[in-house]
Every structure is written in structure tokens, then in C-alpha cells.
Amino acid sequence: MKKFFNKWRLTGPTFNNWMKLLIVGLILSVVTTVSLQFTMYFQVWRHLQQTTDFGQAFLLSVRYLERPQAIFTILVWLLIYAFILALVNRFFVGVSIYATLAIIVILAEYMKMKSRNEPILFSDMSEVTAVGGLTQMVDKNLLIISVVGIIIVFVSAILLEFWINRRKAGKFADSVKRMMFKQTGLRIVILLITFIPLAAPFIANADQNRALLNHFKYGWTSFNTGEDAMYNGPVMTFVSNISSVIMRQPSDYSKKNMLALQKKYTKYSNELNKTRHSSLKGQTVAYILSESLTNPNDVPKLKYSGTDVFENINQIQKKSVFSGKMLSSGYGGGTANIEYMTLAGFPLATFAPEMVVPYTQMVPFAHETPTIANLFQQREVIHPYVGTFYNRRDAYKKIGIQKFYTTDGKQYKYPNKFVKNIGAKTNYPADKYSYEYLEKKIDGASNNKSQFLQLMTMQNHMPYSANQYPNSKYSVSEPTMSDGTKETVESYISGVHYTDVATKKLIQHLENMSRPVTLIFYGDHWPGVFTFIDQDKQLERSHETDYFIYQNKAAREKSRAKVNHNQRAYASPSDFPALALEATNSKLTPFFALQTKVTNELPAFANYTRGEFVDNNGHTLKTKDLSKKQRKLLHEFKLVQYDLSAGKHYLSEKFTKSTD
């Protein structure tokens, strides 16, 4: 080996200097690996081995080096180190670039784990265009410390490079110079040797990547990327999610069978439409995605003083057409995934495990993404924040949304008059003002046109700061927690109170409208403040949020639908299109007829896991517990889902398009 290295003696580092470069790289790679693993363990969630004890988290991170998965992570960082050095051919500048990259990755991993208890995934790369919005969600002190650290590293590197390039810099400087490459050809060889394995996972398919990871004993944890990263390391988890597999082909998928299904559900839709008389023209269907909204009264062990924070929403649910608990796929995050399910009617649980974010991984490439919005003539989304997250702008165009109003919108700007907060310390626009803009949109709708609106609120989005709302009367009495955690929970509860009051006023306003309005209201997921909850023991509970489908007087009179209020006490987000169309008593396409059959005959999909359902009594069922008839229906549903999203598109447009 020494002879191999020494043949480059005249054009590159000697064997000893090669070893010096390698040792420095190994040290940096090991430090980076341990630091990344530390961000997985040093968390307040206390899930699995997570802890707020610095020493214990550090010890767990060091012990991670005993696993074969750590070798993979170290090799990845070593390749990155070698690539950077060969690229810049300046030792201290190269090390500073590596350190900067490592600091950014470590910070990003820590903040995402802190907010959602999940690591950075490849699908998150679409968020780089939303830096302005992201910085508002991170710990400002940690961000400042990181920026200062990066500046110090770069200034130090420049000074050291200047020093070693002096004519009489000493033996140390000469040694550093000799470690660098003198010939361009050698640098190109090193760049290729390091770049190819780093780029390969982005070119290979999911199964090939999985085969590579399996050589390092990768232990895949389906549907829980946080657990996956704690066991395998965030780098392995990242690589395992690079290649997108939208959905694996179900058995019996063929043109013949798909055409038979189209015929079957065309006939079924015709039967259902005999009893459905309502047209959507002149009506409004509005979705409200209430950010991070859940009922604090449902949180185990939590007790607080003050009036019932969910009093008004509870009363609205009793008067609604449908209401109950929605089974979210997320905890502390994953908003766009829940939103996608409510629009498309496809549960996340029936896609491939590698398909993590539909808006970035599936919608841009799918042959067709039918949604409830496409049944309407006017289709708009309003969001009192920036619109760059989760590839929403492009995804909305693909699914037929005509206008997307955001605070950073150029063509469709969210009006500044509705971007108001409650108190100086609140981070985001208050729901009461977002509701006012929604009301204005409904008031301005054309009388003879159908209108679909979606409002995504921001008031209760993390982070939650102490004393966020002025004159709050809510105080947490149990469980015992640190002052900082107690204050953030109290701020969250106060925010829910303001949402509760604003929602009551919204319903009162809608009730007096002459235009028929059907409102689908839901909380997308739990907030990330209830760190005293053991998610392993409270898996279902911690993924339950409240929902209701409310119709104003004009809508009730128009639809005259005969429905069972408790028909969906536990609902998947994918049930909402079928339930909304049932509430409005609207005629169905074969596609929505199938969704209606699924909603009526299958228990709700438990989107936080795979192969499980929750029945109307809250009991968890597995696929094997379903009847033969139910399993057949589930299989037909998956066949349609596959054909529309990843298959050969045997179903014709008549299957999904409205005939109006």
C-alpha cells in the first residue's frame, strides 16, 4: 500500500501525509456521526431512549459507534470530507467548509427532531426555497450561536491559510502544504472516486438502496422515521428515503380487471345518484385545516385551571352533520400529508412506505390526482403564511387549484389587513382574522357557480413561547413539568381558547348567509408540546384530533340529506371528500362512489401505522380482522389508487370526471 501511495510522491501527498489526511477525516467523521446521533437522543420527547440528560444522551451517542450502521455514516462523511478537500485543495478552507456543512446538518436535524420527532428526509429538500419561513420556526438563540460558530470557523481558516502561505511559515505549514494535491489529474481521480458513491443513492432505485444499506445491518422501521433514525442514524434514514416508490403493484392488476372495476363502480354511482338530487352550483364547500389543533381535555394526565377551552367546538360538533375524531398520520408535523388525504381521498397508509410526502414525491409525477376540489368551478386556497413549503404551489396547479393566496404571493397576495396577531408575543396571524378573510371570499362568490375554498390557519403553529398571549387565564396544574415546558403548554392552551371563540363566531356568521355553505373543519395533528406523553402507550390517542362537517341553514335546506350524525365517529382524513358529498347530497362520479363505499363499509384507516384500522367504537383492527367482503373492497380500492397514481392508467377520465 505504501508503494501505491508513494508513486504519487512527485505529484501528491506522501504515504505519511495520506495517513494524516485520513486520520483528520476519520476524526471529523466520527465527531460528526456522534453529534448527529446526539441530536436524535437529546430530546424532550422521551420516546424510546430520548432524554434531556446531556451526559446520558452523549453516552448513548458514543455507544452508537458499536453498531455496523455507524460505519456507514462514518464512511459517508469521510467521502464528503475527501471530496471537499480535493475540490478546494486548501486544507483549512476544506475543513472549514466541511465543518460548516456538518453544523448546518446537525442544527437542522436537531430542530426537526425537536419540533416533529423525525429526522431530515430527502423530501424536505423542497423546503430550501422556504428559508425565510423556516428561520421563524427555529430556536433563535441556537441559530445565532451556529451562525457565529460558522463565521469563526471561516475566519480562522482564512487566517491559517494566509499564515501557511507565507514564505517562512515553519515546518507545520510546510507539512500542511505537502498534504495537498499538486497535480490536477490526481484531484480529478479523487473527486470521481468520492463523488460516484455519494451520488449513487440518488440514481439507484429504492430496492437497490435498501440492498446497500442491508450490508450495514439497516433495521428499517416502517412509518416511524424518528425511531428509524435513532436506531440506524439519520444518514441511513435519509438514504433509505431518497428513491420514491409511490405504490407497489397490487395483485391482479391488469387492464381487464381495471375496466371491470370501472364498469362496476359506474353502475354503483348510478344507483347512488338515484337518491341524490343536489347540484353543487351556487354552493360553497370550505375546508379549514386548523393548524396543530387538538382538544387539551383529551390529553392524558393534563389538568388546567380556567374555562373549558374547547367548549364552543364541542357544541358545534353536536349540531354538525358529521363529527368525531380524525386519525392523523402526523404528530407535531406532517400537515401537507393530512391535507393531501382530505383532498384526494387516498389514505397515506395504502401508499408505499417510501412515499413520505405526496406533494413532492407523487403529485408532480402522477398521471392524475383527482380531488374533491375538481368538482367545483371556483377553486382557491388561502394561507396566512408563505406558500413555499411542501411544493404546494406546483402541487396545487397539478390538482387544479386556480388561486393560492399567501403572504409572499405575487399574483395572489394574502391581504395585509388580515395578517394580525393577538398580542405582541404571538408568532402567527390569529384565526379570527383568517376567518374574516374566508367569510369575505364566500361573500364574494358568484351566485350561479360552485365554490371550493381551503383555509390553512397558522395561529397555533409551533414554536410556543412563554406568556405568548396577554392576560391568559389558563394555568397547568398537572402533570409536574419544568417551568419552561409548563409555560409553553399554557400558551398552546390559550391559543386553542382563541380558536374556539373565533370558530363559534364564524359559525354564527355562516348561519346567517343565504348562500349554502358546508364547512369541513379539522385539526391536522397534535402539537409538539405534550412531551410528557408516552407515544408508545398512547399511539392512537396522540393521533386523534377533532373534526366536524357543519352546514348552515341554507345548505341544510338545499341538501335535505338523511345522514347518521355518528356515522363516522372515527374518521380518516381520506373520508372527508365522501362525507362532504354525502352531506351536500351531491351526485357522484364512479371514483367518489368507490370512496363512499369505502367510508360506509370499512373502518377508518389508522394512518399512523400500516395494516390497522379503527372502528366506530374506537377499537383497533388489523387487516386480517376484516371480513372477506371488506378485504375485497380494500383490494379494489388499492387497485384504483395504484392505477391513478403509479400504474398504467387503464381507467378512463369518465371514472373521475364530473358530468356536470
Features:
660 residues, alpha/beta, eight-stranded mixed sheet, three-stranded antiparallel sheet
Structural commentary:
- The protein contains 23 helices and 13 strands.
- By secondary structure, it is α/β, with parallel strands linked by helices.
- The chain has an 8-stranded mixed β-sheet with strand order 5-4-6-1-8-9-3-10, sandwiched between helices. A 3-stranded antiparallel β-sheet has the order 11-12-13, with no helix packed on it. It has a two-stranded antiparallel ribbon with strand order 2-7.
- The longest helix has 29 residues.
- The termini are far apart.
- 46% of the residues are buried.
Task: Provide a quick synopsis of the model.
With 660 residues, the chain is of the alpha/beta class.
The stretches of 5 or more residues where confidence is low (pLDDT under 50) are none
Average residue-wise pLDDT: 88
Described by its quaternary structure, the protein is: single chain
Biggest sheet details: 8 strands, mixed
Q: Indicate the radius of gyration in whole angstroms.
A: 28 Å
Helix content: 40-55%
List the helices and strands and how they pair.
Blueprint: H1 2-6, H2 15-41, H3 54-63, H4 68-88, H5 91-116, H6 131-135, H7 140-164, H8 171-179, H9 184-203, H10 206-214, H11 225-232, H12 234-240, H13 255-273, E1 284-290, E2 303-305, H14 311-319, E3 322-327, H15 335-344, H16 358-361, E4 378-383, H17 392-399, E5 403-406, H18 431-443, E6 451-456, E7 475-478, H19 483-511, E8 517-523, E9 544-551, H20 553-559, E10 570-571, H21 576-583, H22 590-601, E11 604-605, E12 612-614, E13 620-622, H23 628-645
Parallel strand pairs: 1-6, 1-8, 3-10, 4-5, 4-6
Antiparallel strand pairs: 2-7, 3-9, 8-9, 11-12, 12-13
